[in-house]
Write a structure and sequence with these properties.
Number of helices: 14
Low-confidence stretches: none
Helix content: 25-40%
Strand content: 15-25%
Shape: globular
Number of strands: 13
Distance between the termini: 36 Å
Structural class: alpha+beta
Number of domains: 3
Largest sheet: 6 strands, antiparallel
Length: 329
């Protein structure tokens, strides 16, 4: 979680599956304990989406992504028009006081409606969500139980303020440590921040550079591991939203040649991905307690490895169903 600068966490169980794929012997109670003792939190950071981050990273990252959340507030189709001309200062002050203690969305909207009856309460609550640093508090995000989203301010939940002078340079170095070699556009996709070319140029003396097959300049840390192309990569089941696939502008490095569109998830959302030899070769999801698997044609040995890992994942998810594989033409 720290090395990845956070884990995508819109779906409460996703970080557990993501950590299982990355940490040998990971057990869900480890993460539950971190959420309960407040050393880890769920908060909107990179791309304005909910991530699981350490408390220390929350303090640094949240102020850096404020421009992303400001843009969301300005362009929201429904709420932005309702906030034109509204003085948000008193609203945010009230929201900050209210959210020193955890509140659900309905509770926050009701409290704001009582204090500001002339304005749309849902729009005011959305403004609080975008401008105030708010964490989603447990039991949301726990392994064995969850709940509706309930939020509190970072200051109220962690007992300390945001970093007054966070370093974007440090964050980009950590991004490269997790996802390099990467282009400036990759880091922009990961964070949704603009103006990163200047940061990379400032860091250039500390980095090494490469050119990919299309001539794009890629940056990396000098001592980062760069395995040879023929290095074996074990089968990995990733959750629906995984940082690996959301942290690059060009995802072709994870795609099998000629496979474009063949694994388009049926029925919309809810499908995770499966890496075979480091590329996406299947998608999966739980239906009832069964693990449904849609895979591209694979050699028998690879398919056996996928099936074995799928059964291990079923046990991890405490699902007592069966594996239901289908080959996609």
């Amino acid at each position: 979680m720290h090395l990845l600068v956070g884990l995508q966490a819109q779906v409460p169980r996703d970080p557990y599956v993501a950590l299982r794929a990355r940490v040998e012997g990971f057990a869900p109670p480890e993460l539950e304990e971190a959420l309960l003792d407040r050393t880890a939190v769920r908060i909107g950071v990179m791309r304005g989406t909910i991530h699981l981050v350490t408390a220390d990273d929350c303090i640094q990252l949240r102020p850096l992504v404020q421009p992303v959340l400001d843009a969301e507030l300005r362009r929201h189709r429904d709420f932005a028009p309702l906030l034109v001309g509204v003085d948000l200062g008193p609203v945010l002050d009230a929201g900050r006081r209210l959210l020193e203690q955890p509140l659900s969305g309905p509770q926050l909207r009701a409290a704001l409606a009582e204090r500001f009856p002339a304005h749309d309460a849902a729009a005011l609550a959305y403004a609080c969500r975008c401008v105030l640093p708010l964490v989603q508090v447990p039991p949301r995000g726990l392994w064995r139980r969850s709940a509706q989203v309930t939020v509190a301010t970072v200051e109220g939940w962690l007992g300390r303020p945001l970093d007054a002078a966070p370093s974007l340079d440090d964050v980009i170095l950590r991004y490269l440590g997790a996802f390099g070699p990467a282009a400036v556009a990759d880091a922009a996709t990961w964070s949704r921040l603009t103006g990163l070319r200047e940061v990379f140029e400032r860091l250039r003396p500390q980095l090494v550079t490469f050119r990919d097959e299309r001539g794009r300049e890629l940056f990396d840390l000098p001592d980062a591991p760069r395995p040879a192309p023929d290095t074996p990569a074990p089968v990995r089941f990733l959750p629906e939203y995984d940082n690996l696939l959301l942290s690059h502008a060009d995802r072709s490095r994870f795609a099998r040649p000629g496979a474009s569109g063949r694994l388009t998830p049926p029925g919309g959302l809810g499908w995770g991905t499966v890496l075979v030899d480091g590329v996406v070769s299947a998608i999966w999801r739980l239906e009832e307690d069964d693990l449904v698997l849609r895979h591209l044609p694979l050699p028998k040995r690879s398919l056996a490895s996928v099936a074995a890992e799928a059964r291990r994942l079923l046990r991890f998810l405490e699902a007592d169903g069966e594996l239901r594989p289908t080959e996609v033409d």
